[in-house]
Design a protein that fits this description.
Bound molecules: nicotinamide-adenine-dinucleotide
Helix content: 40-55%
CATH superfamily: NAD(P)-binding Rossmann-like Domain
CATH topology: Rossmann fold
Distance between the termini: 38 Å
Strand order of the largest sheet: 3-2-1-4-5-6-11
Radius of gyration: 19 Å
Number of domains: 1
Order of helices and strands: EHEHEHEHEHEEHEEEHEEHEHH
């Protein structure tokens, strides 16, 4: 199948492109190298796939509808996996309009181009942040999602609603996937596991924001990619799925697990909680299990040990 992946040079996108190519698909990837973290890191993410004859890369911006239409004409995709976004909860508070332009208008551009090209499958990378500070755990797709507490979460929910509108109004087959804190090799440098592991290995302080009993449902990137690829065979009109590990870990426990995996003692610096942070994320994955056959294979310690090896290797190179 010919598949267009947006955000293809990012953390999850680059793992996805590798998997799709290994499954025999023809992959076109779009990325504008958003400066949220360095272009050189993203170029390294796609170093391996760039050598594959079935891979094409377009340095392009999803905010530019004309450019996106031209890429659809040239790459003729049958399916679209839309992961490009301004990611990160905390920075979204400083730039709500910028997040809106990329995450909502950019998604509309992708939906419009997909409608014009009669795309047979559109998959959107949403986020557990749409649940806001949900008190009921685990989070289920049937829960109310009208209490987002950051502009980032708000844009993801708006984009989901646009997906629903395009599915209902134009009969487009669309799946929204709510990812729960994804980790693994090449993880974004702003995320906790990346920062903590790097700082512990370098003997630098580890900053803990707010209540150390706050928890996240850390999910290994290989499991997320399994969930995304499982949607390629689906033909339903509109569906939302949680993709998580369904096993949340408290912040204090996360530090202990990384200490164990690295063999280093953390130098802790406690800081007040940050606006936009929720108390817990915890995925109910029964729907994805039932309808997608999704079943996470990486328990946290196994995934963490792969990540720590990757980080040690990165630090040895620098
Ligand atoms: N990593 C997580 O824990 C997590 C959790 C929930 C949801 N998500 C979502 O998954 C997707 C991928 O996340 P990630 O962690 O790989 O982030 P990432 O930042 O590594 O990847 C996103 C990519 O999108 C690109 N991009 C940004 N703006 C663009 C634009 N205007 N045009 C074209 N490309 C653009 C960036 O350059 C980047 O390479 C995002 O939509 C994110 O919101 C991630």
């Amino acid at each position: 199948m010919k598949i267009l992946v947006t955000g293809g040079a990012g953390f999850i996108g680059s793992h996805l492109c590798e998997r799709l190519l290994s499954l025999g698909h023809k992959v076109s990837a779009i990325d504008n190298f958003d400066p949220f973290y360095p272009k050189e890191v993203k170029l390294r993410n796609i170093e391996k796939v760039k050598a594959n004859a079935n891979f094409r890369f377009f340095e392009a911006d999803i905010r530019d509808a004309k450019e996106i239409s031209a890429i659809f004409r040239s790459s003729k995709p049958e399916a679209v996996i839309h992961l490009a976004a301004k990611a990160g909860v905390r920075p979204s508070l400083a730039d709500p309009a910028g997040y809106q332009r990329t995450n909502v208008l950019g998604t509309i551009n992708m939906l419009e181009a997909s409608r014009a090209s009669n795309i047979s499958n559109f998959i959107f990378g949403s986020s557990s942040s749409v649940y806001g500070d949900n008190k009921k755990v685990p989070f289920s797709e049937a829960d109310r999602v009208d209490g987002q507490i950051s502009p980032y979460a708000q844009t993801k929910r708006s984009a989901e609603l646009y997906c629903k509108f395009y599915a209902r109004n134009y009969g487009m087959p669309i799946t929204c996937l709510r990812f729960f804190t994804v980790y693994g090799p090449r993880q974004r440098p702003d995320l906790a596991i990346h920062k903590f592991t790097k700082n512990m290995l370098l003997g630098k302080p580890v900053e803990l924001f707010g209540d150390v009993s706050s928890s996240r449902d850390y999910t290994y990137v290989g499991d997320i990619v399994d969930g995304i690829t499982a949607c390629l065979d689906r033909k339903s009109q509109f569906e939302i799925f949680n993709l998580g590990n369904s096993s949340p870990i408290a912040l204090s426990e996360l530090v202990s697990r990384i200490e164990k995996a690295t063999g280093k003692k953390a130098k802790i610096r406690r800081l007040p909680s940050q606006p936009g942070d929720v108390r817990i994320t915890y995925a109910d994955i029964s729907k994805a299990k039932k309808m997608l056959g999704y079943s996470p294979k990486f328990d946290f310690d196994r995934g963490l040990s792969i990540f720590v090896d990757w980080m040690k290797n990165e630090l040895a190179k620098s």
